[in-house]
Amino acid sequence: MKIRKMGQWLTAAALAAGLALPAAAADIKVGVMTAMTGAYAFGGVPIRNGMVLALKEANDTGYLPGTKIQILDADSGGEKGQAITLASRFAKTDNVLMILGPMTSLEATAAAPIANEQKVVLFSTSASKGITAAGPYSFKMQPVGSDNMGPLAEYAVNKLGVKKVALVFDRGNDGYVGQKDGIKAAFEKAGVKIVNEDGILATDTDFLALATKLATSDADAFFVTSPAEVGANLLLQARQAGLPAKVRMLAPSTFASDSFLDIAGKAATGSVISADYFIGDPSPANQAFVKAYAAAYGQQPDNWAAVGYALAKVALTAVKNAGADPTREKVMQELTKLRDQPSILGNHVWTMDDQRNPSYGAALLEVRNGKFELAP
After folding, report:
1. Domain CATH for 161
2. For 297-327, how does the pLDDT look when each residue is reduced to its tens digit (9 = 90+)?
3. What's the number of CA atoms in the CB half-sphere (13 Å) around residue 198?
4. Is residue 12 part of a domain?
5. Residue 176 and residue 33: Cα distance in Å, rounded?
6. Using one digit for the tens of pLDDT, what is the confidence trace for 149-186?
7. Residues 157 and 259 occupy one common structural domain
């Protein structure tokens, strides 16, 4: 009570003396929704870390003058139902300005209708067209599978001499299905024969039958799109079943994760990944990010940390462009307008077409000596 009275006295004295009081920073709330547990935590944890790092940097540097960002983060568990619940809570109860996340297309396509109903921007790290199709308030960070799988197929054909390929995909996630369909179309256009096409689930752990099938096929390479830990287990079991080392594993950016390297071990050697990001990029923006991430979390950033950080940077640009008093509608409008934004991803430029489908190129990585290197 004494403190309150003292504050009141100081305020009255200042007003009586005609002195201006410093303005209190206006707060905006941003919801961060990622899979911190469950099958997708391999990406959800670093994505969350990257997002939070960018938001805290904005606070520390005064990127939004006179405004502080309150970060409300929650664990979606990679579950569709939980993503719906969190989107509703963020929008209605917490009254956030925007939602960053969720991670997967499975979650995002479920939560996007809620975001549009409540007229709050939802900006997901995933790729499905179903996210943007839900309405003008839902956005995605990554390009669709048909766009980002082309370079990987081209490399496999022209550099690795692949003529026959087997495809394995998580049939329970439309983002992974889209990646499979994208690379399948690219391979068929190049005259590559698809020898096998098998669906799995993120909950699968025993791949004995599929591993044997891969090991006894005459494929030159096999493509896997699934959670990184699931794909790593499949690769290990396939090598144990006799899959020759010369048969390369090809995979999307999901596998540009330390968890893939840790689980697969030496079995990962020679795998080629179409990634969003390469930690060895010498650009000043990337080197600053690597340094800041390591200082904040005590470890090096991976592909997903970079995606989360880059997404939050784009989101912050939209908020800043919305002006001193940003509303949900203004942020949506400004995000819709964004083109050619500097980024640590791909070719360093993140942009969208008029259908809000993003692009930024790809970094092709090869696993050598237990780490990711640029593919030769």
Report:
1. 3.40.50.2300
2. 999 999 999 999 999 999 999 999 999 999 9
3. 21
4. no
5. 20
6. 889 999 999 999 999 999 999 999 888 898 999 999 99
7. yes
Lowest mean pLDDT across 13-17, 31-35, 81-85, 332-336: 13-17
Reported as a single tens digit per residue, the pLDDT across 219-247 is 999 999 999 999 999 999 999 999 999 99
Rounded-to-integer distance, Cα 166 and Cα 243, Å = 12
Q: Are residues 204 and 294 in the same domain?
A: no
Considering the domain boundaries, does residue 328 fall inside one? yes
Q: Inter-axis angle of helices 41-61 and 303-321, to 10 degrees?
A: 40
270, 152: one domain:
yes
- The candidate with the shortest Cα–Cα distance to 127, out of 76, 72, 168, 178, is 178
The DSSP result for 146-159, as a single string, is HHHSHHHHHHHHHT
Residue 52 three-state SS? helix
Mean pLDDT of the chain: 91
My answer on whether 253 and 339 are in the same domain is: no
* b/e code 186-215 from CB counts within 10 Å (16+ = b): bbeeeebeebeebbbebeeeebeebbbbbb
- Residue among 271, 214, 259 nearest 240 (CA): 214
Its domain, for residue 51, covers: 26-142+282-345
How far apart CA 109 and CA 128 sit, in angstroms, is 8
In whole angstroms, give the CA distance from residue 3 to residue 313.
Answer: 39
